[in-house]
Every structure is written in structure tokens, then in C-alpha cells.
Input
Amino acid sequence: MNFLKSYKTGHKKKKRRLNLSKKQCLAIKSLREDKTIKIISADKGNLTVIINREDYLTKLKDRIDSGSNVPIKRNPVKGRDIKLNKLIDSISKKKCKSIPRSQEEKLILNRKDLWKYKGSDSSTPWEHGLLKVHKQEHPLREISNAVDSPGHDLMKKVSQILQPLAGNTRTFVKDGYHFVSILKSGKFKKKKGFMVSFDVRALFPSLPMKKALDILKKKIKNFKDLSLYTNLSADEIFELVLECTRDPFFECEFGLYLQKDGAPMGGPLSCLLSDLFMEDYENQIQFKLGSKVIKNNWLHYRDDTWMIWEYSHDDLIAFISYLNSIDQNIFWTYEMETNHVLNFLDVLVKMEDDGQFVTSVFRKPSHSDRYLHFSSDHPLCNKISVIQTLKFRAFAYCSNELLLKAELNHLKQTFLENGYPSWMIDKYLFKNNKPPVNKPNLPDDINPELSLWMGDHEVEEDKYIGALVVPYVKEIDKKLKSLCKSLDLRLLYHRKTTLGSLLTSQRPLLDKTLKKWSVYSIPCEKGCDKVYIGQTKRRNKTRMDEHIAACTRAFKLGTVKTSGNNDSSLPEHSLLSGHTFRFEDFSIIHTEKNEIKRKVLEGIEILLNSNAVNSSEGKHFKLNEHWLPTLKFFCDS
Output
């Protein structure tokens, strides 16, 4: 309590400054309100693109029409929810072999928890595009935002379970670091020829789903370690996969569409299915060149492949034709080295005459060199981690001192342009200029739109008994760290509002009635200051309709009928007072996806609002009364 009082006292003295100027705020508002433009992310290079809306829609329509998409009139989302829920109910009722509790707690997907993934008022996947600025005519890469669609969260768990099935071939490359280590091992040193890379055009939309699912089914059947991750059987897992992947559909500015074949870009299982299909595909390669049989003697990351071609250019063309004959859906393209130089992933490779490889960091010409800006409202440790991570890559990729020096100088200029002070760059990029032992612990791709950051530098995992996840507030950062340290808690930060979320919305803004995961307030009729406070995981319209039906039933029967866990205080107040609640004027107080947190927020709002008609502090959650003085302390102005 003393800590909170000290924060409030200091907070009154010094108002928190916004890290955007008034001009910048007005510019953001103007850009958001301009309906003639569309602000989107580039497909690669961390670029932001402003494009005329009409041009964007034309490019999006071209991509949709070029695929296996057909327009539909009726939205299938409700039917998909019903079918998935029936399947989940059916599987949940089946008994499974009991296992020790310690093992059960480690399961990624437990039969007992399947009910959590049942659909209710699910969202329709929204199709949008990212601009390929590195390609001629700048086409779009279509992305399906499937968050909250039927089975989306369930398939994320299934994907996590089945991930060990992929990446077990001798040709698999995990990332650029892995690729460089293979080249350093001398595996390709004795090969004579020229470097070439192959790529599948539009792999996800072209993926033959029936073949991919058949491959997955065989893999699941032979997955010996399945019981370590789930107590569902192989058949049950595949049943769920079939239900959640059949006939993908989406909505966009042109209406509803059904995707007849291919995997949606953005689907939780799309990457896994693509990996398994490509691994099976490469096992089929048996290209005959005279008396020789050429197999897949390459390295691959999904559909991107790299190899040394030891034969003639005409033989290479014949090999490409052979690859394209294996499956009519899959079309390969290729790129040859130029002056003994070729890039693969983010690695630039030069092959010397003696078979040695010289490697360095590769950036596309369209790369923005834009990273987490120093003026952004993030913890300092995360900005330091950006420097350390890129330094680690430089040491790992650059094969000689000259290339390393050039890369570090490039990074220095890059960080100066991103607002970093010279002293910080010199300290973390150049001082103690030795190869880092371990890769710094930082979320993937050091994206400036990170949703979760570590508040403390990495320490031993067993030191913590839990974690505190809060928005980053610079003014109380030190005190929070001190508090968490005394309680053996790890301090984690999350952010909700970023420039990206303000300007590059992937979905159209929803009306308040269509929003979900709300803690809401419904005012009574004018002249009455009473309100009802509730929460719902479904769309607000669905919940408002239920409240209206409850009030109508109460007036018709002359009594309030309670059902399930629903709070009857709203129709009760309406019946006893004769008042009519203004359901159309409801307001959203909080939006919280986590059910427990949402119920806590509901309980807090009921407790703090003396005009609430609710019969208790939330039907599902009762707040400990000891919190009341603290909460009121902050609510008092």
C-alpha cells in the first residue's frame, strides 16, 4: 500500500509525458480518417506502405481471383462452431487411460480441457494483403487473419503437439545460423559447380490439402511420443484437424469466399502441413541424368532451397522441368549465383575457387533497417537487447574480420538513424568486441510491435515463483522491479497500443455490438441512476439480446426466473421498478480475452459502483474486501 501511495503522490506532482508531439498525434488522426488511402505493412523488410485504397483493392482482387477461391452468400461460421462443438463433446465423453498427475500437468492438450476450445460467436477470418515491395509490379501476399475463428486456438495447441513431426530430414535447415554452421562443417567443400536456389511459387495457396492431410495422418499414426503431449488418441487428433481445416473460408472487402484448395496463409496448421508436404515431395525426387540418378542433394527451409549444381545449365533446366512434373499444383522457379555470390535466407554466400564459403549478412534492397526506435516507450533493457542480438548475428554470419567490421559499421549507422545515443552503441556494439557466447534472450525478429517483453535481464529460471505482467510505465519501473525482486516475481511488460495497431489495422473496426470479451455497463432509463455491470466472452449483441429476453419473460410471468449462473438482478430491478434498461446505450468498460481476468474486472467494477444493481460482486468471482480501500484510493480524484 505504501508503494501505491508513493506512486500516486509522485504521479500527481509530475504528469506522465506522451512520447508523441501534438503534431504527430494530429497526423495519426488525419491518416486514420483518410479513406482514400490504405496503410499496410510490406511483406518483408519491416516497411510501412501507404497505398491508394483503389490500387490496394485491385491488387487484392487479383490475388483472390488467381486462387481457388469461390464467392459464397451464406457465412458458414455458425455451422462450423456447431459441428466443432459436437465433435469436442463426443471426444470429451470418451474415457482415456489414467496417467500420473505429474505427467498430466505437462500435457499440451488435455482431454479435460477440450471444452475450453468450443466455439461461441466465433469470428470470420479476414483476408488482407501485404505488399511485396521487393517484387516487380508490387503484388500482394494475401494473409488470412483467423484469430478467434472456429478451432483456431485448438489448432494452435495441435500444431504445438505435432511440431516434432517436421524438420527431421538431412536436408532441413532451421534458420540462417543453422545454414552457416552447415557450410562451416565442410559438408559441401568438395563439390564443384555453381550455386543455385529454388523456390515454390505461392506454396500455401497451391498446397494440395488432401495429399498434405494424408501425409499428416500417417505421421500422427507413427508418432511414438504423442502420449507425452496429449491424452487424445491419434485418431481423435486427426478428427479435430480434419474438422478445423476443411473448406477454409474468409471475408474481405469483396464479400465472403470459400477456399476450395490450398492452405490459408495465417492458419495455425498451414506451416506444419507445408513442411510435411515438401519433405514428402523431396523424397520422391529421382532425376535421371544419363546413367546417374540425381536426388535432393540440397538444403531447404520450407520451399526455399539451396544447392550446388554440378552439371550443365541445360541439365539444370531439365531438372526444373522434372520438379514441376511431380505435382501439377507445385511450380518451381530458380535463381543462379552471380559472380559466385548467392543469398539464402538472410545469409549472403560467396563460393571461392577452393570450395570454401565466405558468408555475411544479407539484406534485400528494400530492407528498411528500421528496428525498435530509441524514443519508443519500451524498457531500456529491450533496446540494449536489439543491439546485442544484431551483434550476435554479425559475429555468427560474417566469416572474416573485414566483413565483420563492415557489418558492425553498418549497424552503428543504423542505430544512430534509429535514435540510439552514441555511448550506448559504442558500449554494447564495439566494447568488449568478442563473439557473444549465447544468443540474447529476445522475442523473434526483434519486432517493434512486440506484445510481451522481459522486464529484467535473464537470470536463473528457478529463482521465480511467478510473474507479474503489466503495461510498461517508465515512472514506476524501478519501484516495480524492486517490489517484484522482494516477492521473487519475474516482471513482464505487455503493450496494447502501438503505432502499428493505430495505423495498420488488419480488420475493419467493429461496431460495439459486435465486439467480444467485454466488461460492460447498461444504464437504466433516464431519471434512474442505476446501472447493471456484466461480462461476456461472446458478442455484446448476443448478450444484450439475452438480457432483453430475460426482462420480457419477467414482465410476462410477473416473476424473475433464474437460469444457470446468470445474474437475475437486471430483470429483477426492471420488474420491481417498472423501468426499462437502455440496452442500446450500453458501454464497454474493459476488453479482456482472459476469462479469469475479465471476471476479476467485473467484480472490481461492481464493487466500486454504488449504483450497480448487481446482487453480488460478480456471479463468478467475489473480490476480497481487503482490496476495497486500495481500489477506492486510486478512484478518488
Q: What stands out?
A: The two ends are 17 Å apart (CA to CA). Residues 88 and 271 are 24 Å apart (CA to CA). The first helix runs from residue 2 to 13.
